[in-house]
Amino acid sequence: MLLRSAFTPLFTAIPTKTNPRKALLSTINNSISRQSPQTVRRNASHTTTSLLQLHKLPPASAYIHLPFCRKRCHYCDFPIIALGSSSSSPAKDHHDPRISNYIETLRREIMATELNSTHWPPLETVYLGGGTPSLVPPLLVSAVLDALSSKFGVCGNAEISMEMDPGTFDATAMKELMNLGVNRVSLGVQAFQDELLKSCGRAHAVDEVFEAVEIVKSCGVENWSLDLISSLPYQTISMWEESLQLTVEAEPTHVSVYDLLVEQDTKFGALYTPGEFPLPSENQSAEFYKTASRILTNAGYDHYEISSYCKSGYRSKHNSTYWKSKSFYAFGLGSASYINGVRFSRPRRLKDYTKYVQDLEDGLIDCTPDGIVDAKDLAMDIIMLSLRTADGLDLKSFREAFGDSIMVSVLEVYRPYLESGHAICLDEQGRDVAVNEIISSLPNEFKVGFLRLSDPDGFLLSNELISLAFGAIG
């Protein structure tokens, strides 16, 4: 089955009181045919905190959901507020009460959040996601950042990211946001063909993409990402190659490549069936994925996570919080935090979210509980998130946290994939280690450092491999 590295954000994809592994796994989804993979060598750094304790560390990251869009795209099932197609510039919407009222409610939520410790660190990353956050006037963005700073503190060198869509900002707005501390932009391009953008219900055109890229670069934004979506209706491999080549020419420091996930309660969900024309077949979608890996890595981008590529030194610090199973705050409509090992989601409907904030202020809700986390559940989460990355799973830390039995069970179930090269075991010097050598060396001597998936073929089997690990542990 084919990998569906869905662009549903981790923080909005996990409903309250559901199985977090099942919910997270739905954002990875499905894998493909077993062909001889190309392997990649790399070392990950050891964790300095026990994996059993990592989720208990106080958060140093915050996700902020700004749900405003000009209209709903045909693939989108995120919680949004559609402002209408005329809302193209933040400057025009200073007095839109839908925006200002929401921002005030959001500020109230931030300020009402209880801190269960007197030693919680200032924020090291802030991510303003949506929606289309660039529709929010800089003055109101400032109000949100001020609330975060007042409540938690924000490091002077914090990574502050903002999702922005072409056609929703100009150079003046960009400079104002930079003056507020926004130092990383995620530009939602999705495609470089007008016919594809129109078929997706996107509100911008290709000429606005080039204009947005020029604004970002001319304003001196050094750290910026360009987002693309593959497996769109009627998309061909030549279209995809064109989008990738134009992306390389734009010279972003980061590229996110997402495979379309057709959600049931969307326009695409009503129109199309995955794997059937005009959507690509599973093999065609796999070819899209491999093409992106080939073109972007040849252009000097590091494929450091299933859907993420970057130039040296430009990994997303905020998203790395998720892959490392660290705690994080989340605020706003439909967002989900992860604190003390517990994922907690806010309501997706505005009326319900407003009531939630009032209840939070009245002390009726605790969104930072002390969770009792089952070790096997935690092990499954760590495997799932680690294997999304090119660094992979730190087996030494995993063994120290969960013991030989669970680790050997995982390695045994992965034996066929280690032999085929879809999964790779490396020692601390980055050299291959045979699975038999690993298991025979236990418990006295441990020769392996990391378990990772190969790029791209191993990544394409990630859903299947993660499911096998769950079965071995559970």
Task: Draw up the topology in text.
Layout (H helix, E strand, L loop, with lengths): L19 H6 L25 H4 L6 E5 L2 E2 L11 E2 L14 H16 L10 E7 L8 H14 L2 E11 L6 H10 L3 E7 L3 H7 L5 H13 L4 E8 L6 H14 L3 E6 L7 H5 L10 H17 L3 E4 L2 E3 L6 H7 L5 E3 L4 E4 L2 E4 L4 H12 L13 H12 L6 E2 H8 L1 H10 L1 H6 L2 E4 L8 H6 L9 E4 L3 H4 L1 H12 L1
Parallel strand pairs: 1-4, 1-11, 2-3, 4-5, 5-6, 6-7, 7-8
Antiparallel strand pairs: 8-10, 9-10, 12-13, 14-16, 15-16
Helix pairs in contact: 3-4, 3-12, 4-5, 8-10, 13-19, 14-15, 15-19
Structure in words:
It is a single chain. This protein has 474 residues and is of the alpha/beta class. Helices cover 39% and strands 16% of the residues. It contains 19 helices and 16 strands. A 9-stranded mixed β-sheet has the order 9-10-8-7-6-5-4-1-11, with helices on both faces. The chain has a 3-stranded antiparallel β-sheet with strand order 14-16-15. Strand 7 (223-230), helix 8 and strand 8 form a beta-alpha-beta unit. The longest helix is centred in the middle third of the chain and has 17 residues, at 282-298. The protein is globular, with a radius of gyration of 22 Å. The model is unreliable at 1-48 (pLDDT under 50).
